Amino acid sequence: MDALTAAVHSMLKENSADLRQLISATDAAVLNRPPAPEANSIAVLVAHAVSATRWLVDAALTGRMDRERYLAGDRAAAFATRGATPADLLAIVDELDQMIARLAEEGPRADYGGMVAFQGAAAEPRTRAWSLVHALEHLREHIGHAQLTGQVLATGKVA
User: How confident is the model at residue 159, as a pLDDT?
Assistant: First the structure.
């Protein structure tokens, strides 16, 4: 496996484990409770982070992304997540693990220097490498966000 694919693959696996730990250690009611008005619950953050990661890694592997389909479909659905059980969220993480396995298989053959061809909604020109690295960065950002949300809800205190 090339160095880029191997590094991202390893970090994605660690992030998946972090998501599983967070979900397993958090009560279902807390998973679905936003910490403040207009804020996202842990369930929404997990659904969005995994969905975006799957789309971005796919774009890195294939060089194509239907951004409009992502925005109107998976992204909108993720932000509409309500009443998710821990099992529901772990099933979403299972989808992430499938993408991680796909990266291990297809990543070494990907042309990361190539551009992603976007269909649908306009997007800035991006390389496939950018898409892969952004997938990792975006996922980690939202895992941290979800972890902090869990801490805020556990203490019941907002500064």
Answer: 52
Closest CA to 17 of 131, 139, 108: 139
Separation CA 137–CA 143 (nearest Å): 10
DSSP state of 122: -
pTM: 0.94
| Residue 123 pLDDT level (bands cut at 50, 70, 90) | confident
Task: Please state the length of the chain.
Answer: 159
70 band by pLDDT with thresholds 50, 70 and 90: very high
End-to-end CA distance of the chain: 46
| Phi, psi (degrees; rounded to nearest 5) at 48 | -65, -50
Contacts of 143 (CB under 8 A, 6+ apart): 15, 18, 19, 22, 49
* DSSP structure class, residue 57: H
